[in-house]
Amino acid sequence: MPFFDHVLQVPAYGWADARGELITPSKRQIWSEFFRRLNVFRSKKNWLPFFSWMKVILLSCFFVAFLFFYLSWGTILAAFLYGMIVMGTHGTIWHHRYCTHGAYKFRNSFWRFITQNLTINVIPEEIYAVSHHVHHAKSDKPGDPYNAKAGFLYCFLADVNHQPIAKDLSANDYWRVVKLMNHTGIKANSFEQYKIWGSYAHPARAVLSWVLNWAFWYGVFFVMGGNALAVSLFGAAGFWAVGVRTFNYEGHAKGEEKQREGTDYNNTDNSINQLWPGYVAGEWHNNHHLYPKSARSGFQPHQIDLAWYYIKLMSMLGVVTKYHDNKKQFYEEYFLPHKQKKIAINTFHK
């Protein structure tokens, strides 16, 4: 069986039926799977999804405190910039282009660590990166962990229901997971530890990293603007943590065919380019599906790509030593041929 067919933990309702067609579970089935996988009393191998959502709940408490105690035009602006742009762009820089696709390389582990911790720690790298490889291998097909064709809830709760790695991998398959994650700097469990915890990361190291990250950033924000700023930005991170779970549903057109000629050039799935995710996070999603390993996905002049600007700046400073940039290939293989075809058609009709 191909590695990407079984590297993720299969939900109780399965990926596909006997005919190979996508199984679309009911809302009740999705919620049942969600709470079953969060139950650390049932199995300590559920620790990572539980840990991930515990952070979301804690950040949501900050968001409520922001709304009730620290709401002002200044904190609203700060929260908007941090939650929409800083958190979103960092997610693209770190989790998407580096952890998953290795689109660029750091000079050393120090700068990798700095980039990893540029924002408040929210999403576990393991949950994001491994499942995102599967997403690209099976985009909009059964087995895609956030297949938009199965509905909003299927995507929104995917980090618990569909994205964790399987708990019964062989030693060989587990080391393939380690190979996928090794460049991230997250220390891997031994195979024996994996069999105990069901994860690539060890809970003790994950918790320590989280505590130090949150303590550092709360302290920095407090020095800059007291509890008002710190609570507001932590609340903004909570808003982003919930909102980012809606992205792949929207980024794959809610499971429908909404691609536009001259805007979306990848026709192998339902991914689309959207202005808002593109401007605030560099997520030109259809472009990304054309060239997944490119450190830039904003290829056209209007496609602002803040994540790329950071990577390019780090390259100019010598922090990033290598990156992939497929802008030239995009113009040669897609944009210019399409433009020439339109010119030929218009000329013919004249």
Describe the structure.
This protein has 350 residues and is mostly helical. The protein has one domain (3-16, 27-271). Helices cover 59% and strands 2% of the residues. A two-stranded antiparallel ribbon has the order 1-2. Helix 4 (73-100) crosses helix 6 (125-137) and helix 4 (73-100) packs across helix 15 (306-316). The protein starts with a helix and ends with a helix.
Name some characteristics of this structure.
two-stranded antiparallel sheet; 2% strand; mainly alpha
**Integer average pLDDT:** 95
Number of beta-strand segments: 2
Report, as a whole number of angstroms, the end-to-end distance. Answer: 55 Å
H and E string: HHHHEHHHHHHHHHHHEH
Question: How many domain units?
Answer: 1
Round the Cα radius of gyration to an integer and report it.
21 Å
How much of the polypeptide forms β-strand, as a percent range?
under 5%
* Helix share bin: 55-70%
Give a summary of the structure in a few sentences.
With 350 residues, the protein is mainly alpha-helical. Helix content is 59%, strand content 2%. The protein has one domain.
Break the fold down into its secondary structure elements and pairings.
Elements: H1 3-6, H2 27-38, H3 47-69, H4 73-100, E1 104-106, H5 109-116, H6 125-137, H7 152-156, H8 158-161, H9 171-181, H10 191-197, H11 203-243, H12 247-251, H13 275-281, H14 285-290, H15 306-316, E2 320-323, H16 327-349
Antiparallel strand pairs: 1-2
Helix pairs in contact: 3-11, 4-6, 4-11, 4-13, 4-15
Family: Belongs to the fatty acid desaturase type 2 family.
Organism: Mucilaginibacter ginkgonis
InterPro entries: Acyl-CoA_DS (IPR015876), FA_desaturase_dom (IPR005804)
